[in-house]
Design a protein that fits this description.
Elements: H1 9-14, E1 42-54, E2 72-82, E3 90-97, E4 104-108, H2 119-127, E5 131-135, H3 153-179, E6 185-191, H4 193-204, E7 211-215, H5 221-228, H6 230-238, H7 244-258, E8 286-289, E9 292-295, H8 298-309, H9 339-348, H10 367-379, H11 381-386, H12 394-399, E10 402-408, H13 416-429, H14 433-436, E11 440-445, H15 460-473, E12 479-486, E13 489-497, E14 500-504, E15 516-520
Parallel strand pairs: 4-5, 4-6, 6-7, 7-10, 10-11
Antiparallel strand pairs: 1-2, 2-3, 3-5, 8-9, 11-13, 12-13, 14-15
Helix pairs in contact: 3-4, 5-9, 5-10, 6-8
Amino acid sequence: MILVLLLSVGAVLAANSQNNDRRQTPATSCATLKAPTIPNATVVSIQAAERRNFTAPSGGMGAFGAAPLPPLNFCDVNVTLTHGTANDSVRVEVWMPLTGWNGRFQGTGGGGFIPGTFGSTLAPQVAAGFSAASTDAGLHPASFDGSGIVFNDQLMTNFAFLSVHEMALVGKAVSQQFYGTAPKFSYWNGCSTGGRQGYMEAQSFPEDFDGILAAAPAINWGKFCPAEFWPFQVQTEANEFVPACVLTGLTQANIQACDALDGGMDGLISDPSVCRFDANTIIGKTVPCNSTTVTVSANQASIYNKIISGPVDNNGTRLWFGVEPGTNFNSLAATTPFNLGSTWLDTFVGNRAQLGGQLSRNNTLSAQTYSSLFEESIASKFGKMLATDNANLTQLKSTGHKLLSWHGLADTIIMPQGTFDYRQRVETMMGGAAAVDQFYRLFVAPGVGHCGGGGPSPNTATALNVLINWVENGVAPETLPANITTRNVTVSRNLCRFPLVAHFNGTGDLNSAAGWTCIPSQGQLASPPAVPAGASATGPLMLGWVASAILVAGWLVI
């Protein structure tokens, strides 16, 4: 599991500045809190205790190089729930500052098959003045790729959608008890699985949160998980695992070929839809590998092209999107398959015990078997439960609540085209882009990997402040501030609202947001890139729904 740190302490504390109506002292003692009533669930226990001068654990929601949090004083509440005769045991933990509450509640999410984390995630929120909560959804122990978890229908229901809703009910109820007044506003904050959880709330329980910050959302679960296996599948079919240094060299060549298309040579591809890089042009050229060089072969170039193009079935028909041009996908193209994708196919899809763990043992799947597994992944019971792809956001619109989302264009783990596709399906269903922008805005982050890193990405606290300003003051964001500091050089960008893309003005500092403007894409941002030579894609993209074949951050990551 990778922890991406995106939240600076100073910035998160600044989130308090938008709400001066703080309750400095609780209305009751921590020890006297009563168990809340949760519909269709039984509260087994509630434990509450004050914690003073608490030292926050490292990791979780922080920042690249962020200063440590100050010692914290808060009420720590643990509520255990169960459901009927399911015999599940769901933990919800709520932290509430003893002083300086900002009147807001915040729910936090997880990554992979981990529904949520506690200390490292909740501490920065308490430091910022929020009462904050997380849940384990009854998964004991949770694991990133789901291995070792014996899922039944109740546990998958918890993980897919129920536990975050119940966490919101618990968190707001105990906050109201403790402070003597209900939170004035409630927010969700998550990336990856946390992003999917936020989208699920928007689709199924939009009344829970006034504002939802959901980055790199793990929606379209039954599609992106088998797509993560695609780079391994391509290499096994080609009978060659491309050395990481060669993949890196091809990625750098891809970036160099398309970098200037946005008007500035900044090392980022702002509009991958117009990138027409073909790895065949690099055949016979050398790339550095440790202390020597390697000559790129035709087979290696073909493998690269096929991976970028994305998964296809045994007839060459597209199954899902690939990674974007210029993405470093080395983690997916190793000599062992990426664990989330392989465990999903091996363990969860159709409960296929007959695979016998062969994906983990690196045995080659035939093109037919891979294609069948892909379709089965989409149609499987668990695949449907985790899909989180319902484009009908009518209830979210009617509540007046807001969904703010962003996705990195160099995301290796969750293909950004899936998020763009979802946004366009919402537009098709709900009256077009302008209508949807009233309650749901999506921003595009060039060069940014999964939940951050690589290019300028939104600081989580800054993005949360943007969402707070939209929810509480009606100021809808046109751009989303982002930055990254490398070797003491800070690069800033204003991320563009989908489907606009960044373009350099031609003068000024490439590293400054002031030199860039958002313009319409010169291609079609929400569609697969052109298929280069050596990549097979003879049919249309099969998206897995019947009537909509329209191509259209955070912390824990998948």
